[in-house]
């Protein structure tokens, strides 16, 4: 966490729902919610041009400023919990904040930055894979790091770094991510194997319909059984004696 | 042979409404750069295959390509010059449902310049407008 906690101004939203949230966004504001500390959640809105640059800089802890109001959340410290993006993943459309104290222990996600040039990448066809670029930790709000740096310069070909190998910045920090989850791995690019579905042959031109075989078997079995008395005659069969002639079209 | 499912629950399917935007699979999840669709379409399996070949011919053995969509929707089509009626036609091809925002391909292990050139070649094959996006950093 940075030494200076940025202050963000918030206004309580009177009306909730997607239509009202859309109108708020059109006014250049960002809808959000503040919850936690066993108090009622409060729907608020922020100035987009004030909050979004701070979030993009990596800020996570803010001090709420509610000018002209006597709201209980005035000067409350809040932690950014979740962001929602639009369908293209560019624009932030909603932000979740949790009420926190600086000495409180919280669970949060931290960005992982890979540092150094891995020795394994010098061999031909080597690729650095990093399936995730964030880890979940538990720590004091005051100790919350901006990012966790992982040194990969010693990483060779076919070697990997798992989450439990990461050195956390403070001793009392606890890793919540699965310790076996891969953070960085150097693999060798192999000749692309054509997907299994693509080489199964001509039979694969029509996929198997689940349960169709069973249904066909059952129908065949039922067909072999003797017909019930009074059952409709098969197509083209002679009508039963005494049956009414079919109406002419 | 283009991608298609091995087993299906129903042989044919309704067309269904296509007016939604992507709410999932709309971010770079596996690679470093991705090709994101800006429009909606039914992307045939053969087009996905064409895109894969275009990218891999450019990348050669460098980097890793991820295909984020799978053609699991059967599209039926009546033969030419046939009268209407007599039931739903046979399946013509299999398509992936692409919504605005859907990530179609991803590339890992290459520089941005190489990824851009590879994705431009892939984008030529796509029937929709696309754009190159990189992995999101904001937590």
Strand order of the largest sheet of chain B: 4-7-2-8
User: What is the total domain count of chain A?
Assistant: 2
> Could you tell me the radius of gyration of chain B in angstroms?
17 Å
End-to-end C-alpha gap of chain A: 86 Å
Order of helices and strands of chain B: EEEHEEEEHE
The portion of residues forming beta strands of chain A comes to 25-35%
What is the CATH topology of the largest domain in chain A?
Answer: Ribosomal Protein L25, Chain P
Q: What is the structural class of chain A?
A: mainly beta
The backbone outline of chain A, from C-alpha atoms, is: extended
Strand order of the largest sheet of chain A: 1-3-2-6-5-4
Low-confidence stretches of chain B: none
Major sheet characteristics of chain A: 6 strands, mixed, barrel
Distance between the termini of chain B: 40 Å
Fill in the keyword field for this structure.
heterodimer; A: 249 residues; mainly beta; Ribosomal Protein L25, Chain P; RNA Polymerase Alpha Subunit, Chain A, domain 2; 2 domains; six-stranded mixed barrel; four-stranded mixed sheet; 14 strands; 13% helix; B: 139 residues; alpha+beta; Aldehyde Oxidoreductase, domain 3; four-stranded antiparallel sheet; three-stranded antiparallel sheet; 2 helices; 27% strand
Describe, in short, the structure shown.
The complex is a heterodimer of chains A (249) and B (139). Chain A has 249 residues and is mainly beta. Chain A has helices at 18-26, 48-57, 212-224, and strands spanning 7-12, 29-36, 39-47, 61-65, 77-85, 92-99, 105-115, 126-129, 134-140, 147-151, 160-162, 174-175, 182-188, 208-209.
């Amino acid at each position: 966490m940075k030494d200076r906690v940025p202050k963000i101004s918030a206004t309580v939203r009177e009306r909730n729902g997607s239509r009202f949230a859309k109108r708020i966004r059109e006014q250049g504001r960002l809808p959000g919610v503040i919850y936690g500390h066993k108090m009622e959640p409060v729907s608020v809105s922020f100035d987009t041009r004030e909050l979004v640059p701070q979030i993009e800089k990596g800020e996570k802890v803010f001090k709420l400023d509610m000018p002209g109001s006597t709201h209980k959340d005035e000067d409350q410290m809040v932690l950014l919990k979740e962001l929602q993006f639009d369908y293209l993943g560019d624009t932030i459309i909603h932000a979740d904040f949790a009420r926190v104290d600086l000495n409180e222990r919280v669970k949060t996600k931290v960005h992982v930055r890979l540092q150094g040039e891995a020795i394994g990448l010098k061999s031909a066809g080597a690729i650095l894979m990093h399936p995730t670029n964030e880890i979940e930790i538990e720590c004091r709000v005051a100790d919350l790091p901006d990012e966790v740096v992982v040194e990969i310069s010693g990483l060779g070909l076919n070697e990997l770094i798992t989450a439990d190998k990461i050195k956390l910045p403070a001793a009392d920090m606890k890793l919540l991510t699965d310790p076996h989850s891969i953070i960085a791995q150097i693999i060798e690019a192999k000749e692309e194997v054509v997907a299994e579905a693509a080489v199964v042959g001509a039979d694969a031109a029509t996929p198997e319909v689940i349960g169709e075989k069973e249904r066909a078997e059952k129908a065949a079995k039922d067909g072999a059984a003797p017909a019930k008395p009074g059952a409709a005659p098969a197509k083209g069969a002679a009508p039963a004696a005494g049956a009414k002639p079919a109406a002419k079209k | 042979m283009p991608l298609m499912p091995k087993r299906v629950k129903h042989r044919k399917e309704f067309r269904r409404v296509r007016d939604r935007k992507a709410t999932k699979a709309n971010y770079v999840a596996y690679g470093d750069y991705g090709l994101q669709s800006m429009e909606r379409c039914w992307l045939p399996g053969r087009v996905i295959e064409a895109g894969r070949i275009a990218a891999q011919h450019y990348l050669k053995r460098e980097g890793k390509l991820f295909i984020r969509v799978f053609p699991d929707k059967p599209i039926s089509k009546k033969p030419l010059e046939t009268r209407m009626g007599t039931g739903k036609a046979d399946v013509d091809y299999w398509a992936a449902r692409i919504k605005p925002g859907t990530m179609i391909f991803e590339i890992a292990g290459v520089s941005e310049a190489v990824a851009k050139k590879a994705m431009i070649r892939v984008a030529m094959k796509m029937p929709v407008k696309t754009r190159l996006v990189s992995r999101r950093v904001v937590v």
